[in-house]
Structures are given as structure tokens and as C-alpha cells.
Write a structure and sequence with these properties.
Number of helices: 10
Strand order of the largest sheet: 6-11-10-9-8-12-13-14-7-15
Helix content: 25-40%
Radius of gyration: 21 Å
Oligomer: single chain
Strand content: 25-35%
């Protein structure tokens, strides 16, 4: 059966999705891919008369239910079309099914998914190969925030509108939290850097070799509460692998839910590596644990993910090994760009590029 990747581009208001979609089509078409794009269904509905701010519950319910039904129908139809193509295909969705859940109470979302014959687990964990969340310009790039390119946008370019946009941005991330390939794309002073990160992440999903890049990492202390952080529990086991290849089995838990991900990183040259990820069932997870590398301990850590001034951070607090150690990692900070450290973080040491702090090496016994 043809391997067709389905990828969601999402984010808060004024995140750059429209521009990103244009570049995605241009870039991957030039590489020989047939690129299908699914339009943003809520915008279609708004332009057709739907009022998502209505106080009429029945109208809102029917509108949101129809939004989900049309979203899924469009994706399914384009998947069937892609299966008939001779060239490799990729389907890029301008928002996905879980975005809809961010705009209503959980009780209504459960009611709607049940009526449509699906569930949060099916839509979030199994329907899409990757979810790329572009951070709203309202968080860290306020000077670029505008409503002029989307007449249906309700979050205006004043302080109240910016606050609403930031809140929606975080609610959308929360809706997708748990997907095995959720990536948050920072704001940058140079917007092209944001778009290039999107192209890189999609290339990764398509199995195209990528340049080896070092994410910024720091040993830190936390001096105050972290606002709006998403907390998760991570258990990470390294498996026996061939030379030049790193194989990791990770169980990612949050709010009583768990996702298992098998990741393989293979260097194909001094400057490039190939990374593949796949979600695995609980039974396969337990079976794969039998292949654990006997020279490495299992890593257990608590992760707090958050956005600060448009930049995405992950703070790992190690439980074992190295209990008490905290490592702050940035995502997608370009070379020469300053890290906007939160005021509740105290940096002890810059460990970027220090291989002794790679998780693979921290897991070594003795």
C-alpha cells in the first residue's frame, strides 16, 4: 500500500500558516511530490454564514459537528485521490480535527466525537503522521500581528486581542499534546527561519536526510513557578543497535494517558542523519523492552513544555539517573539568534554541543 503522509499545520492566530502552505507546495513540488492541501474548514464555514461566537447552543453544536464531519470527509477524499497518483504524495491540512476541540468545552467535544463515530484518541494519536504548531505572532512577535489577512479573525490587534490570541495558541497546543510527532515552531526575527523549520520538519517526516543541528541546551535552576506549562512524564530506554545508529523507546505520559514512540537516528554522513519515528502499541512496547541496551540505564524525567516570548522550551527534571539535574532545551533557535530566557530560569552552564549531556550518554551505566 502506498505510504502517504498526512501532516497538520496548525497554530494560534496570525502564525504564518498561509505563507507556510505556499512555500510547502513550492518546495516539495520541486522535489517531485504531488502536494494536496486541505483548506481551513472553520474559515470556509464562517464565510458561508456560520457564527462560532453564537450563544445559541444548538446552532453552535450543529455547526461544530458539521465542521468536524467536513474536515474528516475532505481528508478522506483527498487520501483516496492520492492513492491513485503515481508520484509520491503528501497531504497537508490547514488545521486538523483536534483544532476544533480547542474552541469548546470538553463535554461538548466528547458529545460531538461520539455522534460522528470517532474519539479524541483516534483523531489525535492515529489520524495524522505529524502536527506542526506555528506559534502565534501575538507571543513574541507582536509587531507582526495583524488581522488584515483574515477578515474572519476575532482576535484584534490590541492588547485584549493579543491576550486572547496567546490563550488560543496554548489551547491548541494542549489539544494536540500526546501526538507522537508534535513539533512547536518558534517565532523568529527573520520569518524565513520559521518557514525553513516547517520545511525541515516535513522533510523529516518524509524520510529525507537532514543536516545535523545542535539544539541549545543549558543546565539550569528554576526560581519560580512556570506559567502555562504542559507537564509530562517520560521514560526513555535505549535499545541495542548497529554501529552509527541510535534506537530509542520512549513512553510519554500526561494526565493519565500514555503514548509509546520508537525512534531511530542514523548518521549517513558527518553532516547528515536520517530520523524515523513510529508510534507502537503497549504490547509491542513491552516486547521491544527485551532489546534494551545492557550498558545503559533507563532515563526517567519530568518534562515541562512552555512558550516564552515566542520561543518554545522544554525543561527536563531528571528523576533517574542523575536525580535533581535540570536541563533546559530550546527548539528551533537559529544560529546568531538570542535565547529569550524566562525570568524564572537561572542558567548555570551552557552545554550546547557537549556530548556528555546527550541523553544517550547520560544513560551509560557507571
Amino acid at each position: 500500500m502506498k505510504d502517504i503522509k498526512r501532516i497538520v499545520l496548525t497554530g494560534g492566530p496570525c502564525a504564518g500558516k498561509t505563507t507556510a502552505l505556499v512555500r510547502v507546495i513550492e518546495h516539495f513540488s520541486s522535489l517531485g511530490y504531488k502536494v494536496f492541501t486541505i483548506p481551513e474548514v472553520p474559515t470556509m464555514f464562517t464565510q458561508s454564514g456560520m457564527d462560532y461566537l453564537t450563544k445559541n447552543r444548538d446552532f453552535f453544536y450543529e455547526g461544530e459537528k458539521a465542521t468536524l464531519e467536513i474536515q474528516l470527509a475532505l481528508e478522506d477524499k483527498f487520501m483516496r485521490m492520492a492513492e491513485t497518483c503515481e508520484e509520491p504524495c503528501v497531504i497537508v491540512c490547514d488545521r486538523g480535527a483536534m483544532d476544533i476541540s480547542a474552541y469548546m468545552k470538553p463535554e461538548m467535544w466528547e458529545e460531538i466525537t461520539h455522534a460522528v463515530g470517532t474519539s479524541t484518541t483516534e483523531l489525535r494519536d492515529h489520524r495524522y503522521d505529524a502536527v506542526l504548531h506555528l506559534v502565534s505572532a501575538a507571543d513574541g512577535a507582536e509587531q507582526f500581528y495583524t488581522t488584515s489577512n483574515n477578515a474572519s479573525r476575532n482576535e484584534k490587534a490590541d492588547e485584549e486581542g493579543l491576550q486572547i490570541a496567546r490563550m488560543l495558541d496554548k489551547k491548541v497546543i494542549e489539544a494536540w499534546t500526546g501526538h507522537s510527532h508534535l513539533r512547536v515552531i518558534n517565532n523568529h526575527e527573520d520569518f524565513d527561519a520559521k518557514i525553513n523549520r516547517v520545511l525541515k520538519e516535513i522533510s523529516n517526516v518524509l524520510g529525507l536526510p537532514q543536516p545535523i543541528e545542535e539544539e541549545r541546551k543549558y543546565l539550569v535552576e528554576v526560581t519560580d513557578e512556570i506559567p502555562y506549562a504542559i507537564e509530562s512524564d517520560i521514560t526513555q530506554t535505549y535499545l541495542v543497535a548497529e554501529p552509527g545508529c541510535e534506537v530509542r523507546l520512549r513512553r510519554h505520559g500526561w494526565n493519565g494517558k500514555f503514548v509509546n514512540v520508537h525512534t531511530t537516528k542514523k548518521r549517513i554522513s558527518d553532516k547528515e542523519q536520517l530520523e524515523t519515528e513510529r508510534q507502537v502499541s503497549n504490547n509491542l512496547y513491552q516486547s521491544l523492552l527485551q532489546q534494551a541496551d545492557p550498558y545503559r540505564l533507563t532515563i526517567h524525567k519530568i518534562r515541562k513544555s512552555f512558550i516564552w516570548k515566542g520561543q518554545f522550551f522544554e525543561l527536563d527534571s531528571f528523576i533517574s539517573p542523575h536525580p535533581g539535574m535540570m536541563i533546559l532545551e530550546t527548539k528551533g533557535i537559529t544560529e546568531g539568534e538570542d535565547v529569550r530566557f524566562p525570568d524564572f530560569i537561572r542558567v548555570i552552564k551552557d552545554i550546547t554541543g557537549d556530548s556528555s549531556y546527550y541523553n544517550y550518554n547520560l544513560a551509560l551505566r557507571g
